[in-house]
């Protein structure tokens, strides 16, 4: 009921892909995790009363921000953006209670960056969970990705979760699998086309747990996504001082592209992008589908190719 009458805060969470793209030339990494992050925000007395519940033991209300309120996430992100405003996008990234400190210089520079961030958190009376923090690493996991000076790749534990996923038996399970796999679609060339037999199963109305017709094409799609993720390439991070190259392709039912950048004479992938064609788009001549793939790629990576 409280969420229904709450005015939603329009604080947008950072896009994970944009966070990862800022790591070019970073060599040292530290990740910080706040202890029960939401609970470190105090509620005003006026707002605290609104969370009251009545029990046989009396009336209770929250003094800190609880999980589940519609504005819990946006309010927390706003607070963290304010606390670390001087350093965000310079050597810090913040996604809710996950903080990444990255440095392109030597170890001493990184130690100074960590000291500055810890000082800001201390001034704001925010407490970190020491057991979940990782200090001065050459490689670590952040938001489900392994990051290092070599680039970005899916976190092994996430890949393991996908590989061990059983074949879905209803629409809800298909959506859950696709949702997890899509988190890593930037690593898979032609993901939209590969996943088409599965995404087709989710179309239409009806109960979430309605049964599905699991065909041979569905099984092939399911297994190929797993295989592609298990062999996903390490993606380089973009250098805005160097030129980019985009390669596009189109099939009868999907379009795809890859963003590349040259390093030591080798064109390395930065990201893959793909899109399933609508019924009308499938009727386009081959040349127009190719042009559509170029247009889609330019729109997707406009920030890299626009002067």
Automatic annotation (TrEMBL):
Keywords: Multifunctional enzyme. It comes from the Eukaryota. Pfam families: RT_RNaseH_2, RVT_1. Residues 1-147 form the Reverse transcriptase domain. One of its GO terms (molecular function) is catalytic activity. CDD domains: RT_LTR. This is Reverse transcriptase domain-containing protein. It comes from Rhizopus oryzae (Mucormycosis agent).
């Amino acid at each position: 009921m409280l969420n229904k009458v709450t005015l939603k805060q329009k604080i947008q969470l950072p896009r994970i892909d944009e966070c990862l793209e800022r790591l070019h030339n970073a060599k040292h990494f530290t990740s910080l995790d706040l202890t029960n992050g939401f609970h470190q925000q105090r509620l005003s007395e006026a707002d605290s009363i609104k969370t009251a519940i009545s029990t046989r033991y009396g009336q209770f209300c929250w003094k800190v921000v609880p999980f589940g309120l519609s504005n819990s996430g946006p309010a927390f992100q706003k607070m963290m953006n304010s606390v670390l405003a001087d350093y965000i996008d310079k050597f810090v990234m913040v996604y809710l209670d996950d903080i990444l400190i990255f440095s392109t210089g030597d170890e001493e520079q990184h130690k100074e960056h960590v000291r500055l961030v810890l000082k800001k958190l201390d001034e704001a009376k925010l407490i970190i969970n020491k057991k979940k923090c990782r200090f001065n690493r050459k490689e670590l996991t952040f938001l489900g990705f392994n990051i290092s000076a070599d680039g970005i790749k899916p976190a092994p534990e996430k890949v393991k979760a996908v590989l061990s996923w059983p074949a879905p038996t209803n629409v809800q399970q298909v959506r859950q699998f696709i949702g997890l796999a899509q988190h890593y679609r930037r690593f898979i060339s032609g993901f939209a086309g590969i996943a088409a037999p599965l995404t087709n199963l989710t179309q239409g109305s009806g109960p979430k747990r309605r049964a599905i017709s699991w065909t041979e094409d569905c099984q092939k799609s399911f297994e190929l996504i797993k295989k592609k993720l298990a062999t996903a390439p390490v993606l380089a991070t973009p250098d805005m001082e160097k030129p980019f190259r985009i390669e596009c392709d189109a099939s009868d039912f999907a379009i795809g592209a890859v963003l590349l950048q040259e390093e030591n004479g080798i064109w390395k992938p930065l990201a893959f992008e793909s899109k399933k064609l609508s019924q009308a788009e499938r009727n386009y001549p081959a040349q127009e589908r190719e042009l559509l793939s170029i247009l889609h790629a330019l729109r997707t990576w406009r920030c890299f190719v626009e002067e």
